[in-house]
Structures are given as C-alpha cells and as structure tokens.
Write a structure and sequence with these properties.
Strand order of the largest sheet: 1-2
Helix content: 55-70%
Shape: rod-shaped
Number of strands: 2
Distance between the termini: 72 Å
Structural class: mainly alpha
Number of helices: 4
Radius of gyration: 28 Å
Length: 112
C-alpha cells in the first residue's frame, strides 16, 4: 500500500494487526508492505508474529550452539582415536594431548 493510504488507514491497520492472536508461520505472512508509489519500503508486522519470530531465532541459536558443542566433541573424539591408532601402543602424557587440543593454559602444572 502507498504511504498516503497507510497514513489515513494507520489506526485501522494497527487495530487489525493487533487483533491477531495466533502467530503466522512466517514473519511476512500477515505483514503489510508500505512505501512510496506502492513499491514497499517498510512492513507493518503484528506483534504476535514479531514475538514468534524472535522466539524462533532464539531457539535456532540454542540449537546451533548445541550442535557446535557436539561437533567439537566429535572432532576431539576423532583426534584422540587417530592419536591412539598411531601411537603404536605407547602412551602420551595427558599434558601433551591437552596442549594439542588447544588448551595449553590448562596443561600448565600437570606432570609431563
């Protein structure tokens, strides 16, 4: 919708969008696009959709963090398996392995 039309209809648009109780599947599903010559520029988005989108983002960020931790654990497991396979049965000091994992500061003070 054009900006002039949106200006005259603003109260009606706000009432309409704020009356929505259930979030849409997409942030843009219920959005109203407003701009000069009907070319867009901004979206009026119902609060319920905005809150749902924020909640989805937070959930996805949590999932990503969990998967990154899992991936790091898998990488460490593979590194340790390769280390054991190539060791020829000899042991390696824990401090050396800790340093190889990038935690040299934790290895300080450990017996060699």
């Amino acid at each position: 919708m054009g900006t002039s039309e949106a200006r005259t209809e603003f109260t009606k648009l706000v009432r309409e969008l704020s009356s929505l109780q259930d979030a849409a599947r997409s942030l843009v599903e219920n959005a109203i696009e407003v701009g000069p010559q009907r070319r867009g520029g901004v979206w009026l988005v119902p609060e319920v959709d905005g809150q749902a989108a924020v909640a989805r983002i937070e959930e996805l960020e949590g999932t990503i963090a969990t998967l990154e931790d899992e991936l790091e654990n898998i990488a460490i497991g593979h590194m340790l398996a390769e280390r054991v396979a190539g060791s020829g049965g000899e042991t390696t000091p824990a401090a050396d392995v800790i340093r190889e994992l990038g935690f040299g500061d934790l290895a300080e003070g450990l017996p060699e």
